[in-house]
Amino acid sequence: MEKYVYAFGGGVTEGGADMKMLLGNKGANLAEMSSLGLPVPPGFTITTEASDHYFKNGGEYPEGMWEEVDKNLARVEGEMEAKLGDPTNPLLVSVRSGAAVSMPGMMDTVLNLGLNDRSVGGLSARTDNPRFAWDSYRRLVTMFGDVVLGLERREFEERLEALKGRVGVKEDQAVDVESLQSLVKEYKSLVQQKLNREFPQDPREQLRLAINAVFDSWNSDRAKTYRRLNQMSEVGGTGVNVQAMVFGNLGETSGTGVAFTRNPSTGAKEFYGEFLMNAQGEDIVAGTRTAEPISSLKTPMPEVYQALEGIAQKLESHYKDMQDLEFTIQAGKLYMLQTRTGKRTAAAATRIATEMEKEGLIDKATALLRLDPEQMEQLLHYRIDPNSQVQVIARGLAASPGAAVGKAVFTAEGAEQKAAKGEQVILIRMETSPDDIGGMYAAQGILTARGGLTSHAAVVARGMGKCCVAGCDEIRVDEEQGRFTADSVEVREGDFITLNGSTGEVILGETNLVKPEVSDHFSTILDWTDEVKVLGVRANADTPHDAQVARDYGAEGIGLCRTEHMFFEGDRIDSVRAMILAKGEGERRSALKKLLPIQTQDFEDIFEVMDGLPVTIRFLDPPLHEFLPKTEDGMEALARNMGMSLDHIKATVEELTEFNPMLGHRGCRLGLSYPEIYEMQAEAIFTAACRKAREGRKVLPEIMIPLVADVAELRANREMVRRFGKEVMRREKVKVDYLIGTMIELPRACLTAREIAAEADFFSFGTNDLTQTVYGLSRDDAGRFLPEYLTKGYFSRDPFVAIDRAGVGEMIHMAVKKGRARRRKLKVGICGEHGGEPSSVEFCHQVNLDYVSCSPFRVVIARLAAAQAALRYPAGK
Ligand code: PEP
Ligand code: MG
Question: Which of 799, 835, 857, 854 is closest to 453 using CA atoms?
Answer without folding.
Answer: 799
